Amino acid sequence: MDLSLFACHDDYRWEIAPRGKMRVPAVIFANEQLIRDMDSKVYDQVTNVAMLPGIVQASYAMPDAHWGYGFPIGGVAAFDPNMGGVVSAGGVGFDISCGVRTLHTGLDLTDIEGVKNDLANMLFFKIPAGLGSTGRMHLEHEDMDAMLAGGARWAVALGYGSWEDLMHTEEEGCMLGAVPENVSEHAKKRQRDQMGTLGSGNHYLEVQRVAEICDAEAGAAFGLHEDEIMVSIHCGSRGLGHQIGTEFLKKMVVSARGYGIELPDRELACAPISSPLGQDYLGAMRAGINCALANRQIITHLTREVFAAVLPRAGLRVLYDVSHNTCKEEEHSVDGVSRRLFVHRKGATRALGPGHPQLLEALRATGQPVLIGGSMGTASYIMAGTTQGMALSFGSACHGAGRAMSRHQASRQWRGRQVIDDLAQHGIIIRSPSTRGVAEEAPGAYKDVTAVVDAADAAGIARKVAKLVPVICIKG
Fold it and tell me: In terms of C-beta density within 10 A (0-12 exposed, 13-18 middle, 19 or more buried), how is residue 41 classed?
């Protein structure tokens, strides 16, 4: 990206002044090298978002930002319903509530060395992964609606986990305001056999080792120690979320002109928050959030069953579960005034700062755990929300490394079997139903996650707590 496009910047905050139909500035959090390497389409998309009605403060992009559908992936924008603010299906994305859940195991690396292959094989057998994967659970109509209304709480009530899990989950495991009736029968049909599955693309279940504690105080508050074995689950709302996004984007494109909305890009299709269509989407989207929360809860249960069989000493407990494809109604201070805003985070993680009332008492002094997924074979990070980030980015941070090339480009450059063999040489076991999928997700297809995390830390939107490295990766 051309640095001359920016009106002003410091080392980690790059601002594009309002021009043309932009209502607010656009801001990208990154270092100079990340900015230079970003696709110019990120510039186009972050400035287009700044043209939408009712946007507040700025249109933001995180250090891992790359081109997406309408909004950049890594995009954040907040809208005020009292100023004609809109809700955009493209601002949430197709994989509604895709997110990460990270669990402690109570084990160290030495505890699993002798059983790594057995653990990898059983996890791969127990937890379905890949395009169109289906699980052992089949939901009839009433069960589906109960799941969409109850989220992870529904799963726990059926015996998939404990109530303690919910205390360490965003929204305590259930997004209020979900309206299952707003989800089409086709969307529900697609999800009928997909609960407890990872799906494909960049989704995974990873057994990880804590390689470094970067902040001793926050690490202690999160219960982390070096060489501890953790498990991270990265997945979302599968076919149901994709169908919701597809259907409502079409409706929003058709209805935009009737609402007096001039779209800078058809992919930014939206509707006023207060409109019937906006409210219908929010009800369906919240049901999609509950689907993802329930899905990660069921996968947690399946993972516990595997560890109980292979490593009975393990005790898997949730550190935190947080989404990075949502629109949430939140209170934020803007120019010293508290306002009710609808914050879109697409490929961006909620990162509540210290003292926030939604946090558990044990986390209030530290801030919310922010879970940054790596790419297969590279590090992941645990960060913490900051007070500064609440003001800078509506309590939002990056969500991963961010793609550096398309899946098509990656599949032309790498062969899946070779990637698996190369990672095995570094002690990382990969299990996947698709070698093509492995090639598409090769570590080299992504940005340097450490550079992304360091930029987020230096910008003040989150602070680095711990670095995790992969031991086993079950890849969709």
Answer: middle
